[in-house]
Amino acid sequence: MSEKYDVVVVGGASAGYAAAVAASHAGAERIIVIEKAPRDEVGGNCRFSKMGFRTVHEGTDDLFEMLNADQQDELRGKFKVRPYTKEDFASDLDRVTKGLVDPELARTLVEDSRDAIDWMTELGHKWLAWQQPVDRDGVLEFPPGTVLGPVGGGLGLVEQWIKIGNELGIELRTDTRVSSIIGDFNRVTGVIVDGPEGRYEIEAKTVILASGGFQASAERRARYLPPGSDLMKVRGSRHNTGEVLDMAIQLGADTSGQWQGGHASPIDASAPNVEVNNNVNRYAYPYGISVNINGDRFFDESERHRTYTYAKTGWAVARQPDGVAFQIYDQQANGMYPDAYRAATPVEADSIRELAEKIGIDPTALERTVNEYNNSVNESVPYDATVEDGRNAVGLTPPHSNWALPINQGPFRAYKVTGAITFSFGGLKTNKDGQVLNTSQKPIRGLYANGDIVGMFYHNYPSTSGMTRNVVFGGRAGAHAATEAGR
Q1: Looking at the structure, do residues 59 and 114 belong to the same domain, yes or no?
Q2: Which residues belong to any copy of the FAD-dependent oxidoreductase 2 FAD-binding domain (predicted)?
Q3: Count of H helices and E strands in the chain?
Q4: Residues 469-482: pLDDT tens digits?
Q5: What predicted TM-score, i.e. pTM, was given to this entire model?
């Protein structure tokens, strides 16, 4: 059996659907989205994410107008956010990737970010202010780069994309796994798939790969990521296993991104091994200290706002003995816990010594660490949770750069955490139109890629910029693929 389509999209999450919808708008007539998951598991990592989008904006009035009506009523007169400029976004990308992000892709992501959000709004996506704000005398100040999230979170986003696709006549075929890409170093002409009825060929004028990273494969984590990564929990879909990425590389596609890196964040140590939801995220670490099982601190908990550090903090935890750590807080952290902590049951005690005994750490070691931290807090700098306030722990190694408050107001709390990987950074190399480049740096005709299968990030990434990337480059890849298909 053989079928023919203008555009075949491999992967049914946001990266795939953004490309498929853009291809339809650009004139492609026969479009199919191939998804190996069953229908009730479609959506990749989006299904398990609370979800946000990083975009440039002009501040409070600009973003308030984008919020859905119910939240506007709730936040009217209380909503505040500083502008987030193109220069801010570009600086964040350059800094956290240590200057290694592809300059053309970075520039395109920044320049097109707001247009991408406006396009989604026109399509029918609706928005909430989703990040936890800081309450300053009744005014809620949101972190400037990461305000907008879709109504319904990641699952709501996926279902809205599918609804839009259905209205455009885009076919979604689930329980169907790509087993081969038809083509060579210069040209791709379709895919071979394994569906419920067996193996068959789909001819395509263009193919867009949006099947995610390789993080759900323990074998590939062991192959590419740091030692011990095969034992890490997976904060996302079990279906993102990387075989389509390998197929493209075998054709001669070039690679990019950091192959020994990925998005890894701290989560509850008792979380499931895979398909972890947001209730296990543990992102309040800037407002306390984190210690390993020896009672030692091991990273700068407050280097930046957590939206710039959470995706690398999981690696710091994973490197500790037994791959676990404990987040330690006192009562001054109340009000700084993200919503996910509501689902947690911390260990509590009236003294640090008692807390140490309850969590299995040598009490003398933990008391020493807490005392060293407390004695280093720079109380001459005012505390301000709405900005990176520079209130540090003087001379402490590792440093504690912001929001330092002595841990001295019991009862004290401890949360046991581990590191979980969300998506891998190594992937295919593309140009700004989503065309996959071969190792001779020429586009492989008929082959495009979008989403986590593309290697764009190094060391770290600004939170939620991956979702914006999916729409920016999905729009470009879909439009370019439709044009190529129509020739």
Answers
A1: yes
A2: 6-462
A3: 12, 21
A4: 999 999 999 999 99
A5: 0.94
